[in-house]
Amino acid sequence: MSRSDVPSDAPIRVAALYRFARFPDPAALRAPLLQLCLDRGVRGTLLLAGEGINGTIAGAPDAIDAVIAHIRALPDCADLDVKYSGAEAMPFDRMKVRLKREIVTMGEPDIDPLHTVGTYVDPKDWNALISDPDTILIDTRNDYEVAIGAFEGAIDPKTEKFRDFPAWFRERRDELLGSGKQPKVAMYCTGGIRCEKSTAFLKQEGVDEVFHLKGGILNYLETVPETQSMWEGECFVFDQRVAIRHGLATGTHSACAACGRPVSEADRASPLYVEGESCPACYGAKAEDRGAAA
Questions:
Q1: Please, which residues have CB within 8 angstroms of residue 180's CB and are 6 or more apart in sequence?
Q2: Per the database record, which ranges form the Rhodanese domain (predicted)?
Q3: Angstrom distance (rounded) from CA 26 to CA 68
Q4: What whole-number distance in Å separates Cα of residue 278 and Cα of residue 258?
Q5: Catalytic residue among 37, 77, 189, 282
Q6: Pick from 41, 52, 240, 243: most CB atoms within 10 A?
Q7: Quick check: is 259 catalytic?
Q8: Which bin fits 261, alpha (ψ -120 to 50), beta or left (φ > 0)?
């Protein structure tokens, strides 16, 4: 969604952004960026690493515009990928700018999306690609994200964290690709950033035809009419909205206060759901084992 497409009556503007870039000294970028966000009342989380920037922030429209302009002025960030949506209330509690080794953690140090990446596919062309019988479709998100929504026919790796994806693929490579002509591989994630690395990883592993959904599920749900959609369910997002639907409308899921996993209407009706204490996914687990969704 471009800035001009954001609903003018939305009191809060939410910006999901990322950019792979060369930051020789990401620590030097942190303080000015954090101070600007605090001064403008912007909240959310931004990650800085030597490979670029990633995160989601929210605030008044003019405040978000100021922060995005600041980020676009950073080295090689003029083409920053930003997806906007609106919210009725602030979806974050505070502002954090964190220094990390990777802006999305895969744990494969030789992967460089600035060097090699899969072929981007616009949402309008996505249905045709994934309907092709010579294409296999892989969801690169975590298991709890896939559980509430996915594309028809997608393979669910059932990974708990993105860094588990390389091992999953290597273990199942022969099963996935077969011994004859390699199929086309299409992959998708929430906003596109995980697919930058997963497609780069598959290319490095020798897979020739690798594709990914440009702008991720968020872009698809925004631009593809629901009547033509191949998406089923809702899309998990890492803020207090929890999930979104077509048109980027807020979904029906809430978040478990104990483990952070998405909780459906059916989950809330379960005897294993105790508000503020547990959900069917974490009921009976020890408090120290209930890690928040990440």
A1: none
A2: 131-229
A3: 17
A4: 6
A5: 189
A6: 52
A7: no
A8: beta
User: b or e along 148-174 (b: 16 or more beta carbons within 10 Å of the residue's beta carbon)?
Assistant: bbbbeebbebebeebebbbebbeeeee
Q: Which CATH class is domain 119-232?
A: alpha beta
State the Cα–Cα distance between residues 67 and 162, nearest whole angstrom: 28
Give dist(CA 21, CA 228) in Å, integer. Answer: 35
**Amino acid making up residue 282:** C
- Residue 64 makes CB contacts below 8 A (sequence gap 6+) with 13, 15, 42, 57, 58, 84
Residue 288 tokens, joined: 């120290």
pTM of whole model > 0.70? yes
Separation CA 148–CA 127 (nearest Å): 20
In tens, the pLDDT along 203-256 reads 999 999 999 999 999 999 999 999 999 999 999 998 888 999 999 888 999 999
Instruction: State the Cα–Cα distance between residues 74 and 116, nearest whole angstrom.
Output: 22
With beta carbons less than 8 A apart as the criterion, state whether 249 and 238 touch. Answer: no
What is the per-residue pLDDT across 132-166, written as a single tens digit (0 to 9) for each?
999 999 999 999 999 999 999 999 999 999 999 99
Cα–Cα distance between 183 and 208 in angstroms, integer? 9
Domain boundaries 12-99, corresponding CATH code = 3.30.70.100
